[in-house]
Amino acid sequence: MFNRILFLLSIVLLLSCSENPFEADSDKVEQEYNKWKAFNIKSYTIKQQTLGMLPSSELMVKVFVVNNHITNVVDTTGIVQIEPPQFSIYKTIDQLFQDALNIKNTKPSSYSFVYDEKHNYPRYFYIDPSRTRIGDEFGYATQNLIPQN
After folding, report:
1. DSSP E strands: which ranges in 9-98?
2. Which tens digits make up the pLDDT trace of 54-95?
3. Spatial distance between the Cα atoms of 117 and 52, rounded to a whole number of angstroms
4. Are 44 and 148 in contact (CB under 8 A)?
């Protein structure tokens, strides 16, 4: 009888120690987000490219952010004119972090985040919500942050 109780107690302890990967990764995102917020950068320019099935995924653009709002998006080659209605497919750094923090709730089939070593913003951000639905995956590659504060 004692062995059964010990066995059941061991299983309960093992199960309580196993960490939810979404929870652990969300904690990592939150840590990086707090590091980013410590810089208090609210206005900046950054180069960004959408990945996956988002429109204009071939374009590298420069995103202008003032007080955490996108004010302009310019194609870095100068060939494509980007109008304000199209700004919504691009993200501020805070918006990228909010989407990354949401993995805890959405539990996508796969995801990947890589952070900038200096300012801790997501340099690479990719989420595939479901393995069964092709075309739902999306992501962003960001680089060359220039603070304007």
Report:
1. 44-52, 61-66, 69-75
2. 666 678 999 999 999 999 999 988 788 888 888 988 999 999
3. 24
4. yes
Q: Give the pTM.
A: 0.78
Give the domain ranges of the chain: 20-147
- The string of pLDDT tens digits covering residues 4-25 is 444 444 444 444 444 556 667 7
Single out the residue of 139, 142, 136 nearest to residue 125, CA to CA: 139
Distance CA 149, CA 68 (A): 12
CA pair distance 66, 82, nearest whole angstrom: 18
CB neighbour class for 95 (10 Å; exposed up to 12, middle 13-18, buried from 19): middle
Give me the long-range contacts of 18-24 (CB less than 8 A, separation at least 24).
Answer: 22/103, 22/104, 22/107, 23/104
Beta carbons of 126 and 107 less than 8 angstroms apart: no
Residue with tokens 């990719």: 126
